[in-house]
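Issue 218. Parser rejects a valid record. Input:
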Amino acid sequence: MVEDPDRERLKQLEERLSEVKGRGAKPVRPANGLNQGEAAWRMVIELVAGMGLGLAIGYGLDTLFGTKPVLIVIFSLLGFAAGIKTMLGTAKHMRLGQGTDDPGQGPDDGKKG
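Output the parser choked on:
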């Protein structure tokens, strides 16, 4: 039987293909370690946590002082504002591509000068 001359070339091609496939297998992650979906959920959780804390504090103070809807409304609005502020800090943190997980840590925070 006659040996196929292209057999060696096919073997080399398969080796090169396996090398290329092995190199491209790593998923690329952003500098801050969060992909877009994780970052979106993080921001939603920050907003809901701010609202929840505001409602809880308002409800507790209303129960304590007997002023039922007044402090719930005030503290829920304050919690909403705090959640928005935290979300904006996270968005700024992601835009700058910082490596830390603390959105309050900006490029100049913690430096004397």
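Fixed in the parser; the record now loads. The chain is about 65% helix and 0% strand.
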